[in-house]
What does this fold into?
Amino acid sequence: MKNVIFRLFVILSFIVFFNSQTSFALPIATQKANNTPSKISASEISESEAEVIKRFSIKNKFHRTPETQIKKFYSDFNKYSEKNDIEKLKEMYSDSFVNNDGYDKNVLFEVFSKAVDVYKDIEYTTEILSVAVENNYATVKIHEFAIGNTAEKHRDINDYGLISSDMYHTDYLKKEGNKWKITSSVIESEEIALKYGETKLISIELSAPKTVPAGSDYDVSVHLKSPDGVMVIGSIVNEPIIHPQIQKQDVFKSVKSDILERVLKANKDNYNEYATVTIGITRASVDPPQLVFSMTGMAVVMTRVNVLNKLN
It folds into this structure.
């Protein structure tokens, strides 16, 4: 019981020291009547201690700075994302949400719901680069990295895919009632890679401009270090970021000297787009009397190209 009273005394002293204008009723365990110590049960002391802790916690909660609230907001965001808790995530977005690809809240969560079925065990790392708050509005710059695996194996390679995403974006938040909510998001740069088999062991560097004017030409190049004794084929296309997604078909070409290059033309409809490279690795084996080629690796690497409206 002495330990309980001592801890209670320390808590009270701490509160009074840092907030002399707030008055707290002392628990009955510290009162005296006619200079005679009162007798009190252990349960009463425990309840008194709990009440002080509760009051201090509530006071502290309402005095959090906006920056602290926003950091907690993104900590919860990561937690809900890893648990695929779509309902909790929806609560963190304003109903008026729209991003720089034109996705509203409904489209965003339709895409997210489909991704949940395809990928599993995704881990998110969020680094808050800066927070600027003005009244009930906030601008948050974020670096986000995610890595995980596909739920199913590739049918030709018999291997689960490894997916990674590296993104820099700016979120715009508004306080609605007592809660911060994301009202808009602008993705400045983004690279996504999905690798199967032998491509997991090689570096694939995709280079493209981050912004281009609508309808203009731009160069895309791919550098990789392929394993010995393999044949590498690849293709480069650009795909507008729209929903539902439209995938372009392209003819694969042999990759010479581990370099693949192509000039692409940005769309004229002012959609942002992905410059996408697909790499396939094949190996030859002898199955008398034939020479058999089998695919041992495949990768799809995408980098974002934001398309700017041409001013006449």
